[in-house]
Design goal:
The chain is of the alpha/beta class. The protein is built from seven helices and 17 strands. The strands form four sheets. A six-stranded antiparallel beta barrel has the order 12-15-14-13-16-17. A five-stranded parallel beta sheet has the order 3-2-1-4-7, sandwiched between helices.
């Protein structure tokens, strides 16, 4: 059997490559070229960190005795991830580009490339588990053994076809085990820090990136309170996200948080901490994994952002591509554009984009 391994240059995908090779698969490593400095408005004189990642992945492949390739997916990444990221922000949403990268690049374009090269499987270093359930005759996505590193949230968009062709060898392992294996085999990235921020926004300043990329400044507008009364001026809608308290540039007699954004009116609504809570949401662009559809309301646990624990809720499928979710307790800062992912114990039921 042949497996193509998506290698980011990090320790996780490197150990995934080692483990798959140990299992007897004929393997090659692939690193994706997703953007260059010019693409994201960086000075070309700066060292491109993605080149270092390529070199680290190549170094590990050399140690493992497997071939290493670099695939240029810059055009696809620009269209399916960066452009979508910018469009979402400009519409008042707060997107998760890592989910889009998994959905449109790694598990779509790269998997397609793997098929063209006559490989049976694609391998990644994600912390999650894929199992085939004989009762439902469906592939299931489950949480990883390492609860702190679990990445099932960002993989909820995988289809049955994609799950059937994907291997996740780190799913039942802990992060310290991964680093121990990397150190034991003297991998160059054994102590390399995990990446945290969005890869194409170098300094974490999303609004600055969008304005530099588009050449357009987000227009100023009004801050309004919960009742619609004007209480100040904002510096452009893309500079704010739901739940934000710092950096508002507004002096007021009480603590204020961003509660809503209205692109048509170009207003940012501010309120107190209690105004951030809501008991229900709707999600569109849904993908269900554990079942083909939800015929009746079911009990689940749901999380509305990556670094949040799941909360008890009831979910109902109200349209072919829409879910309504009612939480047992009000949830703080539910944000349009983020993903809501549903769980049945450790099984991912599915998810969608909060609208």
């Amino acid at each position: 059997m042949k497996a193509i391994i998506a290698m980011s240059g990090g320790v996780d995908s490197s150990v995934a490559a080692y483990l798959i090779k140990q299992q007897g698969y004929e393997t090659v490593g692939v690193t994706l070229k997703l953007f260059s400095n010019e693409d994201i408005g960086e000075c070309t004189a700066k060292t491109c960190c993605s080149q270092k990642d390529v070199e680290d992945a190549r170094n590990v492949c050399f140690k493992l005795g497997i071939k290493h390739y670099v695939f240029n997916f810059k055009d696809q990444f620009k269209k399916d991830v960066i452009a979508k990221f910018i469009d979402s922000y400009q519409k008042g949403f707060t997107p998760n580009p890592c989910i889009d990268c998994n959905r449109f690049i790694k598990f779509d374009r790269l998997l397609q490339k793997a098929r063209e090269m006559d490989f049976d499987y694609m391998v990644t270093g994600h912390y999650a588990v894929i199992e085939f359930d004989n009762t439902s005759k469906r592939y299931l996505l489950k949480k990883s053994a390492d609860e702190k590193k679990d990445q099932s949230y960002v993989l909820y968009g995988l289809t049955q076809e994609q799950l059937s062709k994907t291997l996740l060898p780190l799913g039942m392992m802990k992060k310290n085990e991964i680093r121990d294996i990397a150190a034991e085999h003297d991998f160059i990235n054994a102590k390399k820090h995990d990446s945290q921020d969005i890869c194409f926004v170098r300094d974490g300043n999303y609004s600055k990136f969008i304005e530099n990329y588009t050449g357009k400044k987000s227009p100023e507008g009004n801050f309004v309170d919960i009742n619609g009364k004007i209480i100040g001026r904002h510096g452009g809608i893309i500079n704010y996200t739901i739940g934000q308290r710092k950096g508002l540039g507004l002096t007021y007699h009480k603590r204020l948080f961003v509660c809503d954004k209205n692109v048509k009116k170009n207003t940012v609504t501010l309120g107190g901490p209690d105004d951030l809570f809501s008991k229900s949401l709707e999600a569109a662009d849904i993908n269900l994994i554990a079942c083909p559809k939800i015929d009746k309301p079911i009990r689940v646990k749901a999380k509305v952002r990556y670094n949040q624990k799941e909360e008890p809720a009831t979910v109902e499928q109200i349209d072919k591509d829409k879910l309504h979710i009612e939480f047992d307790s009000p949830q703080r800062a539910v944000t349009k554009g983020q993903a809501v992912v549903l769980y049945d114990n450790d099984i991912v039921v599915g998810g969608g984009t909060i609208i």
